[in-house]
Design brief:
60% helix, single chain, 5 helices, 2 domains, Gyrase A, domain 2, Topoisomerase I, Chain A, domain 4, elongated, two-stranded antiparallel sheet, 15% strand, alpha+beta, 186 residues
């Protein structure tokens, strides 16, 4: 496998990690209502865990309110329980056909706590990046042992992998810092 293929595979793997990080960040509250706050909460639905967004319509009628309207009225209680049991600190209010979730203003302590969550998500992404970098370097080592790469190509490949990893780590840092600033600024 040529060095370029190893680099491309590394970049594709890490792009998936970055995409996952961005999805996690969307779920972190910033003081403004967003469907992303509740859409990935898992609901017990006919024996399996299902995202809220798969069984209900989610809308934001006001800046501090989320409305969840189940496609089937019988799912209302299960959705209400799942949202209430989530670690999001949200309290849904049912009117019999839909749920209203009012977002209270965030205290400074809560903002700091959420900023810490962002940092934790960033660290998890960096760990995955390091694992992908390690795998890329192993692939290069194996190619060199098989005789497909020379020593010089192996060194250039490792340098390119490290350079790409640093660039992608900076991207992760940028995402985390932007979200933390957004949380603390609101």
């Amino acid at each position: 496998m040529p060095v370029e293929d190893v680099l491309m595979e590394l970049e594709l793997n890490v792009e998936g990690t970055i995409e996952h990080l961005q999805n996690e960040m969307r779920g972190v509250r910033t003081g403004r209502a967003s469907p992303a706050l509740v859409e990935h909460i898992k609901v017990e639905y006919y024996g399996s865990l299902t995202d809220v967004k798969a069984i209900a319509a989610i809308s934001v009628p006001e800046a501090t309110q989320i409305v969840v309207k189940p496609f089937q009225k019988s799912d209302l209680k299960a959705i209400e329980k799942a949202i209430g049991d989530s670690k999001m600190g949200l309290t849904p209010h049912s009117d019999g056909t839909l749920l209203r979730i009012n977002l209270p203003p965030m205290s400074l302590d809560r903002r700091k706590q959420l900023a810490g969550h962002c940092k934790k998500y960033g660290e998890e992404a960096k760990i995955q990046l390091r694992n992908h970098r390690r795998d890329a370097n192993k692939t290069l080592d194996n190619e060199q042992k098989d005789g497909s790469l020379t020593e010089d190509d192996l060194e250039r490949g490792r340098e390119a992998v490290d350079e790409l990893a640093k660039k992608l780590e900076a991207k992760i840092e940028e995402i985390v810092n932007k979200k933390q600033a957004e949380i603390m600024d609101v």
